[in-house]
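Following up on my earlier thread - several people asked me to post the actual chain instead of describing it. Fair enough. Here it is, all 158 residues.
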Amino acid sequence: MTHHPTAPAPSHRAALVGWAHWGVAHAAQIHYAELRPIPVHDAPGTLPLTTDCSGFVTLCAKWAGCSDPNGLGFSGQGFTGTLLGHCNHIAPEHALPGDLIVYGPGSGHHVVLIVAKLPRGDFDCVSHGSEPDPRELRHSVIAAYQPAPATFLRWLDP
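Reply from S.P.:
Thanks for posting it. Predicted structure:
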């Protein structure tokens, strides 16, 4: 019997980052609006798509096979406040691709998905905060125009 090795399944983190990059590649068909429910029951990669920043993060998680970062079992609900309440708050130096950054006080103003860790404590992130998005931007650039604080979040295993 011949054994044919199979490629290992991508980690949830890698799949999550992959879906974020997919969003950047398809930005022309992804529109911005604060709508609920989040279309979590659509097939992965369904276009056109209309969602907001937390909806985009939630869809990337669903399509990557992760648990719901809102802690709501992919009910179609959730926003930056549910992300802040459900995910573990971590120090920036511990952040990895697949973790989140929420900007703003209280229940938060905007959330991005970290896709790469860069030198000097910076990160490449995918942001879906307005109509030309999603796009890839550095955390240092996003933080310059989003309200403080920047809260780093993790719900996946490292």
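The chain has a mean pLDDT of 94. That should answer part of your original question.
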